[in-house]
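Hello Y.,

Per our agreement to keep a running log of every chain we model this quarter, I'm adding this entry. I've kept the format consistent with earlier entries: sequence first, then predicted structure.
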Amino acid sequence: MKNAFLFLFLVTNFFSFAQIKGRISDEKGNPLPYVTIYEENTYNGTTSNEQGYYELNTKKLGQHVIVFQFLGFKTKKITADISSFPYNLDVKLIEESFSLNEVVINPKDNPANQIIRNAIANKKANIEKTARYKADFYSRGIFRIKNAPKKILGQKLDMFDEVLDSTRTGILYLSETVSKISFQKPDKMKETIIASKVSGDDNGFSFNNAASANFDFYDNYLPFDVNVVSPIADNAFNYYKYKLEGSFYNENNQQINKIKVTPKRESEPVMEGYIYIVDDSWAIYAVDVNIKGEQMQNPALNVLTLKQNFGYNSATKIWVKNTQTIDFTAGILGINISGKFTYVYSNFEFDPPFTKKTFTREVLTFQENANKKEDAYWNTIRPVPLTIEESTDYTKKDILQTKKKSQVYLDSIDKKNNKLHVFDIITGYTYKNSFQKWSADYEGILTGVNFNTVQGWKISTGLSYTESDREKGKYTQFRTDFDYGFSEDKFRSTGSFIHKFNNSNKSEIQITGGNRVTQFNEEKPILELLNSVSTLFFKENLMKIYENNFISFLYQREITNGFFLKAKIDYSENKPLSNTTDQTFFQKEKDYTSNNPWAPNDYITPAFEKYNLIKANMEVKINFDQDYITRPDGKYNFSKGNYPVLTLGFEKGFAGSEKKYEFDHAKAKIFYNSTLGNKGAFSLNAKAGKLFNANQISFVDYKHFNGNQTYIGLSENYLNVFNLMPYYTNSTNDSYFELHTEHNDKGYIMNKIPLLNMLKSNLVLGYHLLAIPNRSPYAEYSVGLNNLGFGKFKIFRLDYVRSYQNGFQKDGVILGLSFFN
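Predicted structure for the entry above:
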């Protein structure tokens, strides 16, 4: 009885504010989800929910012509004479009958091919009709999990326990947005979020937005993880086969052709399904296609289904997209997730009078209190009614959120999680006070045990205290780190203070200081774990280190959009260090090299003399192509990749213990990453600089370059490393030029090669160059395969690299792990 009452209450609730409402079903009474509903010759429309219910808001009484359009069913047009609201209009749709007799068959050509050619030839004309518009936009996103495991790799998966039912199934995420958008081809968009709602989070902001849903089949490519080729792309016949499955006439007596789209090669970024083309105008009527996760190089994704429906306005003679849905299933490690996004476009205004101020770098903004709208507001503006499941989720999580915000609840959760266990001494421990928004952390020693020839076996750990405010985008952290080297019998420690003022301009200060051991190259190209393995197993001490007593102050912020400033000043006392142990597991007859990168076989002469120096560093980064989203909790930047990012810097060493240690260093960097249609991505990282008055500076302050002697690929995107170059052989105190380039084909070439295409990998070509005075340039050429692995675990990269300097130097194979990249 209670369940029946709840059902009646919910149904009454989400229909009580509707204007025209009802349920859509087939002839057998089965509900039809995501039917497109709109008023004839207007841009006022909506879609039905998963249970077939719909709501269409209209303000005027009188006669209305309502159109119901659904793929596979005959479009139905109903004239309703409305004298009062709400007005109930239930509809049954009849399956469409397709006919090939109405199509003239050319025996010399596949008739579908000619229709697609006409659609491609008329793309420009159809694009121009909707190239500039304003519209209202609604979106809803939902993620569900089914039969969630209790553990993953031995670790409890209990974070969702309160929202899952007894079968460990439920809604993980539910959100909605209502916004107004302005759009101009090819890619100018401004969106203002009027209302945003996230189930269970009254301070949350939905990530649904119009830009992320802007999949235009008139474009050559659809932007997923890789660019997916449209069935009516200019080069579509290189990727697809077409079959005309029939045609029908719509309510306006326009002939609609149903074309089946099949990939020529399953391994490529393509789709499969149906595209419906209007005869004569060759506009898109509807799209219903599937894309596999492996085709878009997202192995966790099983399949994604994209559907679009277009409505026709006989007054403007424009076909325009009015509804879109995206369904997907994904799974990995026993976690199976499904999702659905629903999008409704309405109230189009074409060719509006845009000004120069319409489109700025701010592409999305939220109105004040957009995430504070009451249920009454949503019940009047929501174009797609909630299902019983969704409405229940909002109610359930609102109650749960109130509970979770209480101090009693947060303290009880903290009491459970703050229990100290024996193994926490090794693995680490966190103590939280969630209500007061602070935590204290102990890192443990599990990952802090390493070995090097200077300190011998070394244990390191750290303690930290953090206060954070997510709503204001700020945090404060105090931290201290310790390490002890057993062979040299020395304890060292550092401390730091970090405060981020806000998430709008990212203003932040850092104060650090203490006594530490660090690599000569401040970018630390050698991981301690890899160095431990190379020393203990192969007796190769690749990492060269020195002692640094220091205090440092850093301030950074975004001055204006795309213009970042970083200023740092530090005082250092630097001391050379020597090997203190020859311990190893194997190769005991072999000698370690010294800790002097200048002279690896000189065990007496230190790499440098002890000295003091103050260094001031100023750096400016300019992103010429940075757009941003403004939310009450901060500013979120992203780059379109049309222009490079430029970084300019100047470093000055002064007040040294001797004048010879002082220097000036001017430097510049250009980073560029561009997607080349479906032909892959090109990336470039170029650096140049000059050290002045630096003839006698310490080797510590030389410009060092990221070499690699481990044959393990670790550097992000491989665009900051020479994979066969010894670490310090080309360090300089003069001018330098460094270039790294790569082209990742994203499968463009590999997908077309028989047998190799079964790997579903990417071909990566690289070139790396280093030029310094009085020495031949160092160059590397590489060819590799990325996205290698098994099943859904595509975590490996393999490269063959050949290096040159004064002729051929060496070649080698580099194994990379993607979770390091």
